[in-house]
Design goal:
Number of domains: 1
Oligomer: single chain
Shape: globular
Helix content: 40-55%
Order of helices and strands: EHEHEHEHEHH
Low-confidence stretches: 128-135
Number of helices: 6
């Protein structure tokens, strides 16, 4: 089963993401902020991280910076979930190291499409040894 970690400070958004992902057969864990997300990544070893950008304390940009600097998590697929939808925000988010982007409010088809795009990108860019090792996403 594919493990997804949701890092989102809004309980309502966490619940919505959890329900949408569990309905699609994912095993879901949660974090309420950026620091907890980093702890949970070590504990859970997710196949995918859905990361809110605008969290108090350590925001999504801080989390992605720490993950990409750690060789153990540098290749972890990370999907930004954010209300930032102004011109240039998507590019800024992708340039920061996120693998994908979904704007809030979250809807089921857009979430599924973003996950499918990550899967497709992983299949085409992963070395055959990583595919053989069971790259889940």
């Amino acid at each position: 089963m594919i493990k997804v970690l949701i890092a989102e400070d809004s309980p309502v958004n966490r619940e919505l993401l959890r329900e949408l992902l569990e309905m699609r057969g994912f095993e879901v864990s949660e974090a309420c902020d950026g620091l907890e997300a980093l702890t949970q990544v070590d504990k859970v070893r997710p196949d995918l991280l859905v990361l809110d950008i605008g969290m108090p304390g350590l925001d999504g940009f801080g989390v992605i910076q720490k993950l990409r600097a750690n060789p153990e998590y540098a290749e972890l697929p990370v999907l930004a979930a954010t209300a930032y939808a102004m011109r240039g925000d998507r590019e800024k988010i992708l340039e920061a190291g996120f693998d994908g982007y979904i704007s809030k409010p979250i809807n089921a088809p857009a979430l599924q499409e973003a996950i499918d795009q990550l899967k497709k990108a992983r299949k085409t860019s992963a070395p055959s040894s990583a595919k053989a090792a069971g790259a889940a996403i």
